[in-house]
Amino acid sequence: MVIHDGGISLSVRNDASFIVDARLSIYEHQSTVCPNMPVRSLIYFSVILSDMLSDKNIYGRRLVKIPTPHFVVFYNGEEEQPEVQELKLSDAFEKPTDEPNLELKCMVYNINDGKNKAIMESCGWLNDYMTFVNKVREYHADGAFDDLAIDIEKAIDYCIDNDILKEFLKTYRSEVTKSMQLNYEFDRQLELERADAIEEGMEIGIEKGIEK
User: Fold this and answer.
1) In this predicted model, what pLDDT tens digit does every residue of 120-160 receive, in sequence order?
2) In degrees, to the nearest 5, what angle opens at C-alpha 129 toward C-alphas 3 and 193?
3) Which residues have a Cβ under 8 Å from the Cβ of 79 and sit 6 or more positions away?
4) 199 pLDDT above the threshold of 70
């Protein structure tokens, strides 16, 4: 789901961008920790610029103006993270430099319970979205993966009964259920891959130890 000033819209993608007062804001939602957001944001920005400047002469003598970029990530994963953190593109450079010729800064805001209260209080849509997410987590805390759809439905019922995203959830109930299932399946796959990588690393370490 993508959250914007006009409400919430469903999308397979979890990023959104818009221009206001010559500022291009690129917003991303993350439920898993990803230190590569500056690189991803750079790619997003390049693609957007390519489309915006398709009919402009960037080889001419006249300066072509572009909107000022602003990169933000909302994090609501279950892994503990700081309330606010700044990620920089230069952190990914193989050879660190104090004066990078290219830099991109991405602000990451933790929107879990008790974090960034000022932001959550000023944006009702974002606050309601997290209420819904927390209800899914609550109902699915001890459930099997096969029960996920049922637990999502219970969270939807709770939110509708308590006037939280009521009209949106009533209209897009099936789409919301499918979208949340996809998010959980994606996170679950990442956890499995991480566990496999750790296990593989331990096996390699044991083998090397035996060889020595």
Assistant:
1) 999 999 999 999 999 999 999 877 777 889 999 999 999 99
2) 90
3) 32, 33
4) no
Residue 164's contacts (CB-CB under 8 Å, 6 or more residues apart) are: 128, 131, 132, 158
Three-class secondary structure assignment of the chain: CEEECCEEECCCCCEEEEEECCEEEEEEEECCCCCCHHHHHHHHHHHHHHHHCCCCCCCCCCCCCCCEEEEEEEECCCCCCCCEEEEEHHHHCCCCCCCCCCCCEEEEEECCCCCCHHHHHHCHHHHHHHHHHHHHHHHHCCCCHHHHHHHHHHHHHHHHHCCCCHHHHHHCHHHHHHHHHHHHHHHHHHHHHHHHHHHHHHHHHHHHHHHC
Verdict on whether the full-model pTM lies above 0.85: no
Q: Angle at CA 39, nearest 5°, toward 38 and 43?
A: 115
Q: Is 120 exposed, middle or buried (0-12, 13-18, 19+ CB in 10 A)?
A: buried
